[in-house]
Amino acid sequence: MVDGTGPTSGGDGGSAQEVVAGVARLGVLFVNAYMVGAPGGPWTLVDSGLPLSAALNRRAVAGRYGAEARPESIVLTHGHFDHAGAALELASGWDVPVYAHPLEMPYLTGKSDYPPQDPTMGGAIAQMARLFPHSGYDFGDRVRPLPDDGSVPGLENWRWIHTPGHTPGHVSLFREADGTLLAGDALATMDLDSWISQLTYKRELHRPPAPFTIDWGASRRSVGALAGLEPSVVAAGHGLPMTGPGVAEDLRTYAGRFSPPRRGRYVGQSASADEEGVKEVPPPVPDPLPRVVAGVMTAGVVVAAGIALSRRLGHKG
């Protein structure tokens, strides 16, 4: 596998990095948005990044397309806060529609929140997820369902593919002409569970953000479907894009060994949802962190008491 060109960190300070012809990546802290379409022609924004990142998006757009440029639409791979956080502000300012899969509509029209994240499986992203929201949004009539025929509004030669598991209505985008895959959070191109990878952004195929993935069986099937596309480029929501002749083989290998975390709320039982939103979630599982924190605090008290006693006895001596 040959790494694609790109920055060595997740955030790009408002500049877009070309992935392949007609696709540029904008790193918004730990998540990616993609501008799809060549400068001088129609283009579409795929995902929008975090809340409060609208200005960063606009700055990158101006640098790539010009100060007055606006997209044909905004397409969301799903509605989690790190992918849809700036979508409404951008869509309102540009006066363009937002598209998502019909099964994402409840979380984008104020009908439902997502199932709560599960931080109990351990790892870097799990611990960080304790601070993340799982609420939905209300985009009102700004949001529309993607066409049933698989076409992507504003993007010729692209099609959307339903890749559920991370969320019920998650989609990936594929350009068959050159094998470019925008995978969203169907998978990641970095190890989100590793604290070191949060700094190095080493390119490698890994499972989607685990704390927010609510159906691991569906997620495995989705990764298998993406592997069947034999892409030459994999650009995901988290991590740096991967390109080269070995990417398809790497993805097939990864799909064959895909596995959920060893433990977690949604590992043994999936959450269920339909067009109205979340129907049922499994009960919470024991969270080891409070016990760990309590143990550390207790050990600290014991050590402090021991030091104080030792000093007192030494003083008496």
Descriptive overview:
The protein has 317 residues and is α+β, with helices and mostly antiparallel strands. It folds into two domains: 2-286, Ribonuclease Z/Hydroxyacylglutathione hydrolase-like (Metallo-beta-lactamase, Chain A), CATH 3.60.15.10; 288-317. The protein is built from nine helices and 16 strands.
Care to give the gist of this entry?
The protein has helices spanning 54-65, 81-84, 87-94, 105-108, 124-128, 197-200, 216-228, 247-257, 288-316; strands at residues 2-3, 17-20, 23-28, 31-36, 44-46, 74-75, 98-100, 143-145, 151-152, 155-162, 171-175, 180-184, 233-236, 242-243, 272-274, 277-280. It is of the alpha+beta class.
- What is the averaged pLDDT score? 89
CATH topology of the largest domain: Metallo-beta-lactamase, Chain A
> In terms of per-residue confidence, which ranges show pLDDT below 50 for 5 or more consecutive residues?
1-9, 291-306
Query: What is the H/E order?
Result: EEEEEHEHHEHHEEEEEHHEEHEEH
Strand content bin: 15-25%
Please give the largest β-sheet.
7 strands, mixed
Number of E strands: 16
